Prior knowledge:
Elements: E1 2-4, E2 28-32, H1 39-44, E3 52-56, H2 59-63, E4 69-72, E5 85-89, H3 95-104, E6 106-109
Antiparallel strand pairs: 1-3, 2-5, 3-6, 4-5
Amino acid sequence: MRVHKSFLDSEGDLFPTAFRNQPKGSIGMSVDWSEYAEPIDTKNRANKPDENAVIKFTAGNARNIPNQIVEHKPVSPPEIPNQAHSEVIGDKKDVEVRERFMQIYEMEIPLINSI
């Protein structure tokens, strides 16, 4: 999952608000399935890759968070194809839900530039 630098503190650690449904108003948080994408692929899909870090967590751990469902939803043309695209569906505004995501994520590609 890409994380924009605005969701990282000065040490490069995530703010819990990084775990949100995106785009605004959607029911899911966009992620890439590692079966189909390398972390660098995920980073490079950003409009400004240098402004993004990449984190990872397992689908199983995400499914263990209350009211979260993981679905593989590949993107096809006419949009830019992405076989790895998946969504973690469920409300993420609850503090407990965000804290559970904070416990399961690992930094895969840290932000190199200063924040």
